[in-house]
Amino acid sequence: MKKSFSLYMMACLLFVSAGVGSAPTKIFGIGGGTGNQVDLSDLNKGKTKPEITSQGPNGTECVNIAGRWNYSENGTFTCESEGEAFTDPISDTGTIDILQDGCSISYTGPGPDAIKRAGQIRGNMATLSGVLTPPVSGITLSENSFTASGAVNTPNQFTLSGTGRLEGADSGIPFSCTLNSIGKFTRDSALRSEIECLLNWAEINYSNLFSPAGATSQFQSPYTYRYYSQTNSYVGVSASDNHVYYLGPDGVLMDVGDFSGWLTRASCQ
């Protein structure tokens, strides 16, 4: 069977088909059953296992993995057609942003054919599913599926095993393909630094709103935020839309703009 270029390109999609989207943030959790915060971006400062910090519908509890992750993945992509088969290795690296709402998780790739995959975490077990590939010119698909699952056993690293299947016709010639992959994810500390930089800048430049200075960042889905007792105010970044929010003593939540715009203003990029 002659490899078609369009089929070969499918072999490069995997988890990779979802690149960088909105920038969610999960940096802090509650550690050790003591109610004390631990910095999940630094294993040396906290527990070696992630804490159950989020809650979904009907009281479901789960680990929160919202945030930016660097990944590396390896696997094989096998296609069969007209009695012949070929298998190619797959290897790639990149970055994805995982959104989380309660125990529901998702990520979305860039571009006009961006793929969204969504799933759940139950306890520390994560599962994601969606299509394997966006539409490819000249190929008709009757099956296009991808599922990945794995255990989140540490705050800063986890591994997902993925399987995918494609069936259809390439220029009228029937084919079937399978994908098997392993994706290893490591938390990207750069986003945490950007958020901390912005909140530190806000304390200095808007001290009339945010005092006393030196508040600790906290997480409550979908917000990474700080609370200021003297001014009874909150400021934080939402993982749902990547905007900065302010909540003052009047109890009115205000969307004060895009996170990336504030980073530029604060020279935090």
Write the layout of secondary structure elements.
Elements: H1 5-10, E1 28-31, E2 36-39, E3 52-55, E4 61-63, E5 67-81, E6 84-101, E7 104-108, E8 116-122, E9 125-130, E10 139-151, E11 157-170, E12 173-187, H2 189-205, E13 218-220, E14 223-228, E15 233-238, E16 243-247, E17 253-258, H3 259-265
What does this structure look like?
The protein has 269 residues and is mostly beta strands. Helix content is 11%, strand content 50%. The protein contains three helices and 17 strands. The protein has helices spanning 5-10, 189-205, 259-265, and strands spanning 28-31, 36-39, 52-55, 61-63, 67-81, 84-101, 104-108, 116-122, 125-130, 139-151, 157-170, 173-187, 218-220, 223-228, 233-238, 243-247, 253-258. The strands form four sheets. The protein has an eight-stranded antiparallel barrel with strand order 5-6-7-8-9-10-11-12. A five-stranded antiparallel β-sheet has the order 13-14-15-16-17. It is elongated and about 75 Å long.
